[in-house]
Inverse folding.
């Protein structure tokens, strides 16, 4: 036997609203309550190639936003994500690194930074078998305070006397993104 429960408000034991309904099917979940929505969120890509200097840590200028739910990613100046909602964020990045000549690429990494300090570096060393390039990917769950914390994406590349380049373009081979998980 099925039953129907009709209410316009759910509250916890302390009288705090968990969910309300306007009677026409619209439900409101107050901020701070788990809503099942993973935002703030952003995903940006490098739209064109970015030439970089050899053995210099360089910020990746992902200037083309494909998603920015709350306008918290700066895609023109600092290329950083500064969420104003505290919580844990799943952060991910990929860089397609290349040298201008075969067998010249010897080392590359991506560096995810929080507030200007490295929190994780994904490193690839090809010293014993230099190549032309590679894609380096990484991800991490990072706690953000929701006020001053920010995230940035950097790369470092070493070659034997050739031009270093981060590949960009409409196919999205180099990108940076994050989204809030849980409450």
């Amino acid at each position: 036997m099925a039953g129907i429960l009709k209410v316009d408000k759910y509250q916890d034991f302390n009288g705090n609203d968990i969910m309300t309904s306007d009677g026409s099917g619209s439900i409101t979940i107050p901020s701070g309550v788990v809503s099942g929505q993973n935002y703030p969120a952003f995903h940006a890509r490098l739209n064109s190639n970015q030439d970089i200097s050899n053995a210099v840590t360089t910020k990746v200028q992902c200037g083309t936003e494909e998603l920015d739910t709350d306008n918290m990613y700066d895609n023109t100046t600092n290329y950083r994500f500064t969420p104003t909602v505290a919580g844990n964020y799943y952060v991910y990045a990929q860089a397609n690194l290349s040298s201008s000549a075969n067998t010249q690429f010897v080392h590359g990494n991506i560096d995810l930074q929080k507030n200007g300090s490295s929190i994780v570096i994904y490193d690839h060393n090809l010293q014993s078998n230099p190549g032309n390039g590679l894609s380096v990917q990484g991800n991490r769950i990072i706690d953000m305070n929701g006020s001053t914390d920010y995230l940035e994406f950097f790369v470092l590349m070493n070659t034997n006397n050739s031009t270093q380049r981060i590949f960009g373009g409409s196919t999205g081979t180099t990108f940076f993104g994050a989204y809030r998980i849980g409450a």
Remarks:
- The first strand starts at residue 9 and ends at 11.
- The mean pLDDT is 86.
- The chain has one domain: 40-181.
